[in-house]
Amino acid sequence: MSAAPNEHQAGTADGFRERNYMPANRPPDLARGGVLDVAAGLGFEIVCPPQVRAELDTGAQTGPAPIRPTWLLVVNLGRPLDPVARATMDDAEAAVIQLALEQGIPRVCVDETKARQAALVAGLSVTGSLGLLLLAKERGLLPRLRPVIEHIVGAGTWYHPQLIERILLAGGE
Predict the structure, then answer these.
(1) Up-side HSE of residue 50: CA atoms within 13 Å toward CB?
(2) CA-to-CA separations, 157 to 28, 36, 90, 154, in angstroms, rounded
């Protein structure tokens, strides 16, 4: 399932409550795009489970620069990670969904198809990294989306070309 360019509609005026979740494996992509700290200016708290923090730490050990944004709050899960979720998706993404359900937060930010589908089935709203970038542009934190997206894609992240075009169109580019 791909993200819709207007994926931040439900909830408050712009669709976000005070808390939202950083995607399980996307902080490195935002860092590659040079916009990691833009997330801090979106006006809501971004939290992640320890599994996401572990992925960031493991990535730092295998090559990418360490990613330790001061605004990323690690919140422990209230119970062990669901084994069915672990069997169907990455542990970090399963933990993001479980944490949202435990905390009663209606929206997650995940990019992988299986995680997006699972979140929707669980009754959560979904946004992705490109949705966060679009929100940042709408709030005046980014002057243009295209160079950021091109930089992220050039660094090795794949997004469906139609999704990219929808996001760019929604952002007026």
Answers:
(1) 6
(2) 10, 15, 17, 7
